[in-house]
Amino acid sequence: MSKEDEPRGSFIRWQSITIAQLTYAVNLILGFSVATLAFQITLLLNNGFVPASWQKCSFTLSLVLLLVSVGLGLWCVINRLRDFRATTKVARKRKKGASEFELEPLRNFYRALGRKTWGIFWWQVGTFGVGVLLTVISVGGSVASKLI
Questions:
Q1: Which spans in the chain are helix H?
Q2: pTM
Q3: How far apart are CA 37 and CA 135, in angstroms?
Q4: Which residues make Cβ contacts (< 8 Å) with residue 9, sequence separation at least 6?
Q5: How far apart, in Å, are the Cα atoms of 5 and each of 15, 39, 53?
Q6: Cα dihedral angle (50, 55, 56, 61), rounded to 10 degrees?
Q7: Minimal CA–CA distance to 84: which of 54, 114, 40?
Q8: pLDDT tens, position by position, for the chain (148 residues)?
Q9: Angle, to 10 degrees, between the axis of helix 53-95 and the axis of helix 100-147?
Q10: pLDDT of residue 106
Q11: Cα 125 to Cα 130: distance, rounded to the nearest angstrom
């Protein structure tokens, strides 16, 4: 491998790592969101959780935010699949000798999907974070009121 090829190989290697880590992070937040929702539903079904009025509001809002986080996680996964599919289509057409003029609209499409993926991911993380925070506040407030 020549010295000119080395930076390109490094970029491809790090791009592959970034793709893998993004996949892991999306799936991790998605799993945590579902687990937190299951925890909340278990609390409600066991009748041991009797929140005060402000706790009901924060608990309900956290349920909604966690459901939104799950939806965003699923949307992110689907968007990434569309991105990979478009990228594959460009690679296939390029291998068959397609012109740059023909490939450019497809490249713009998968670049837009890539930007959208990151936006969806950060919204997923944000809604999950706020949802968990509100869960902790509402459940913690309920436990604290029983201790007093």
A1: 5-45, 53-95, 100-147
A2: 0.83
A3: 10
A4: 1
A5: 15, 51, 64
A6: -140
A7: 114
A8: 455 556 667 877 887 888 889 999 999 999 999 999 999 999 888 877 777 888 899 999 999 999 999 999 999 999 999 998 988 888 888 888 888 888 888 889 989 999 999 999 999 999 999 999 999 999 887 777 677 6
A9: 160
A10: 86
A11: 9
User: Angle at which helices 5-45 and 100-147 pack, to 10 degrees?
Assistant: 40
Query: What does each C-alpha distance from 105 to 73, 84, 111 come to in angstroms?
Result: 27, 15, 10
Q: What is the pLDDT of residue 7?
A: 67
Q: How many whole angstroms separate alpha carbon 70 and alpha carbon 92?
A: 33
Rounded CA separation 18/86 (Å) = 18
What is the residue extent of each domain of the chain? Answer: 5-147
DSSP-derived secondary structure letter, 97? T
